[in-house]
Amino acid sequence: MDAMPAPVRHADPMVPRPFRITRVIREIDGVFTWRLAAVDGAPFDFRPGQFNMVTQFGVGEIPVSISGDCRRPETLVHTIRAVGPVTEAMQGLRAGAIVGIRGPFGRPWPIDAAIGSDVIFVTSTIGLAPLRPLILEVLHRRQDFGKVVICYGTRGIHDIMFEEDLHAWRARFDTNVHLTVHSAPSGYRGRVGGVAAAIHAARIDGPATVAFVCRSEALTRQAVNTLGERGVTPDRVWVTLERNMKCGIGLCGHCQFGPSFMCKDGPVYRFDEIEALYSVREF
Amino acid sequence: MQHVGAEPPDPPALRHTADRSRRIALDQCAAAPNADASRMPPAPALLTRDGLDALLAALHADGFRVLGPTVQDGAIIYDDVVRVADLPVGWTDRQDGGSYRLERRDDTAVFGHTVGPYAWKRFLHPPLLRLWRAEPGADGVEIATDAHAAQPMAFLGVRACELQAIAIQDKVFLHGPFVDPHYKARRQGLFIVAVNCGQAGGTCFCASMQAGPKAEAGFDLALTELADGFLVEAGTARGAVLLDRLPHRPASEEEQQQAAAIVAATAAQMGRHIPDAAALPALLLGNLDHPRWDAVAQRCLSCGNCTQVCPTCFCTNVTDTTDLTGATDRTRRWDSCFAVDFSYIHGGAVRPAPRSRYRQWMTHKLASWVAQFGTSGCTGCGRCVTWCPVGIDITEEVAAIRAAPAPAAAAPAAPQSPP
Amino acid sequence: MVNIVGLEDTLAAHPFAADMDPDVLRTIAGCCSNAIYHPGDYLFREGEPADAFFLIRHGQVALEIHVPQGAPIVVETLEDGEIFGWSWMLAPYTWSNDARANDQVRVLKLDATCLRRKMEADRALGYELYRRFLPVMAQRLASSRMRIVELATEPRPIRARPKG
Ligand SMILES: Cc1cc2nc3c(=O)[nH]c(=O)nc-3n(C[C@H](O)[C@H](O)[C@H](O)COP(=O)(O)OP(=O)(O)OC[C@H]3O[C@@H](n4cnc5c(N)ncnc54)[C@H](O)[C@@H]3O)c2cc1C
Ligand code: SF4
Ligand code: SF4
Ligand code: FES
């Protein structure tokens, strides 16, 4: 009964399906969340950690993780940070606009790897978006896991995304949220510092813990090292990596990372399996 | 016109002519090219030169678009061919690292050349292709795709290394979790007339890559050019059926020996080799910081020629263009890992240095490919050596790393494949 | 009146003193006192003489940097089990930032003048304290560097242009 719905595969994987934006939510400056519904009304099944190739017609197509709840396939959710031409144009779209969706693609977070263990989520800024479906699913199946800890870092107190969720999670007695910001005005009562300090503060039982890390690649190593200091070995740390992606289906070659295609063998990897290549510069 | 989504009117730009050409039975499914080998004729046949013309005529009569080698712009170029006279009769090529020249032969051999700058991938995986067109419509947007060409293709003069290249691209486009519908449509019904090489090109090393010079599988018919005719072997039932319609006689024992000797001589002629290709994944992935990458980067211009001529390179990019009606076309075109933007993510390229781009190309070809597709990505065709403006030679680069590998070179473990 | 024996136990229970030699512990405890701060209290302020360092037992302390425009900026918060303040080790022994209690904060306060004197007299004690301080300093420095990397590489989102 508890099985997640299985994603379906489309006939021509290069052709997007039209989706209508039903709601635009402004998360923070320059970051927005879309709620979408398929124009043909069909539900959109996916697994936490998967992404879509999202097209704004006439502008371009980019990979975007799914940030919604996989138990609610009638609503597709994407959270996007405007950083360049495509994402900035997307920021200009309003409810009612039609965009193209191809997906879901990629290897999901291996939620089963954490069953029976404590779980720690380590993420910063927009990295919470790809982790959100997994957090929701873990909380949905809360009894399958031990302690649940969320370590989330942002630049400042105005850059905290999904604040409503964070409040809701924090309010649960079975979930610890360690929110940290790089700086705050005097009088702020929350934690100020790096995500590493938040991991230390979480006082996890390393050997019993599985970690899911979603941060920019430059900072992934630091998270893994800090988790290591806490006793979480790299074979129990799952991370996401990022590469240019043009097809999402293993055919354009752009997302290659040595033997793997990030779009189909990633973007989620177990850290010990990629550690050697991750350490090679410019690979 | 094939509509995806709701029912839009045919945009005139995309209207195509209906299935007017005869479709031939898909007895040579791309996935199992040799399924009918058991029904092959017992012995090879001999086809005269006129017989070759008859072969061309028969393929045309069966509705194929027949493509073969021609002489154009001073090179062997694959293009539409109608008769033997369209082929490079009496021509050969002289190739070396960074150089290519066509020369007259002192005989009238039809296939007395080797491979040129074109590869068959141009027809199966075209350099430029519209993936879809989206137009504003009643329900927001209407998306349509071009119909796949109805006419099946026949390739004439496919070399062993090129059969291997097609088999490799089959793995990429047909046998992964996602199938490229465009490749699949072009590949279906493809009729292949292979040619066993009568001489090695100046940069060939297919023998050491176990990809030639004899066509072993993946063809309907295979020819070996003899002094006065062609020894023909059928690889499929439909090849045998076609052969039956051509003027031919059984090949003599002597002719069969001649053909074998020609192929053996070709193999012996090759001046370049990559020995023990099976050891390359461990060798190269264990030497990602070898000083040789710096050395080759000193010479490499990052022009991407090697990727464009390589028969197995498959990378593409897409561009979206709009017109005044508000319609969007998405076009796919060949891309190259030598382009800086190829690896661009917000903030900069992952592989800004030419060193990392050459390393990406070569380790992909010879090492990562094996983990990805269960085969090397190199067939030893030599094109990248010939067409590199500065003559960078993949066999030499391998040899240099092999001569001085990093101590205790160990390949990083391949990431676990998706569940 | 300060109860020295009780303080020695309290000190020994703090991670900073983990596995500390009993003699060293006793010597340090001689310079130690308990202190309590209420929300908003300053533990020290920039420019004041650095005459102590602190082991947090309970509560959260904010390290703040004063900026001419507006409220001071909190650059780091520290909690139970952590230590802070190293200006007492380096001339000219003045604090380079403010430290303020975010809530009810209980600390062990070590008198720097007392400690410096004992360390001068007993180099082994000095070594022991440096050995415990350096890793903390190094970790904070490394983490600050990573925070610079994060701030430098994290794209600054483009703000939505107001619709006219
Ligand atoms: C698997 C995956 C999931 C992602 N999920 C999200 C998400 O949930 N929310 C979000 O805001 N962003 C996400 N991104 C990043 C997002 O794809 C890029 O920010 C976006 O492509 C930038 O495009 P641009 O044209 O606005 O900017 P530019 O930086 O100018 O990009 C130009 C082009 O480069 C490529 N490109 C640039 N940055 C990236 C990148 N980081 N990754 C891949 N290709 C890139 C794209 O083809 C893009 O069109 C994800 C990336 C990947 C690979
Ligand atoms: S890498 Fe060079 S030799 Fe190998 S198949 Fe490609 S072009 Fe031919
Ligand atoms: S190896 Fe030669 S052909 Fe390839 S990119 Fe470099 S210079 Fe160009
Ligand atoms: S995005 Fe095209 S191969 Fe992965």
Structure description:
The complex is a heterotrimer of chains A (283), B (419) and C (164). Chain A contains six helices and 16 strands. Chain A is of the alpha/beta class and 283 residues long. Chain A has two domains: 17-105, Beta Barrel (Elongation Factor Tu (Ef-tu), domain 3), CATH 2.40.30; 111-240, Rossmann fold (3-Layer(aba) Sandwich). Chain A has a seven-stranded mixed sheet with strand order 11-9-8-7-12-13-16, with helices on both faces. Chain A has a six-stranded antiparallel sheet with strand order 4-3-6-1-2-5. In chain A, a hairpin with a 3-residue loop joins strand 3 and strand 4. The longest helix of chain A has 13 residues, at 128-140. The longest helix of chain B has 20 residues, at 354-373. In chain B, 28% of the residues lie in helices and 22% in strands. Chain B is globular and about 65 Å long. Chain B is built from twelve helices and 17 strands. An eight-stranded mixed sheet of chain B has the order 4-3-9-10-11-12-2-13. Chain B has a five-stranded antiparallel sheet with strand order 1-8-7-15-14, with no helix packed on it. Chain B starts with a strand and ends in a 16-residue tail after the last helix. Chain B folds into two domains: 2-268, no CATH class; 277-403, no CATH class. Helix content of chain C is 36%, strand content 24%. In chain C, helix 3 crosses helix 4. The radius of gyration of chain C is 19 Å and the shape is elongated. At the A-B interface, strand 1, strand 14, strand 15 and helix 6 of A face strand 7, strand 8, strand 14, strand 15 and strand 16 of B. One iron/sulfur cluster binds next to helix 11 of chain B.
Brief digest:
The complex is a heterotrimer of chains A (283), B (419) and C (164). By secondary structure, chain B is of the alpha+beta class.
Distance between the termini of chain A: 43 Å
Summed up, the domain count of chain A is: 2
Report, as a whole number of angstroms, the end-to-end distance of chain C. 71 Å
CATH class of chain C: Mainly Beta
| CATH domain topology of chain C | Jelly Rolls
Physical arrangement of strands within the biggest beta sheet of chain A: 11-9-8-7-12-13-16
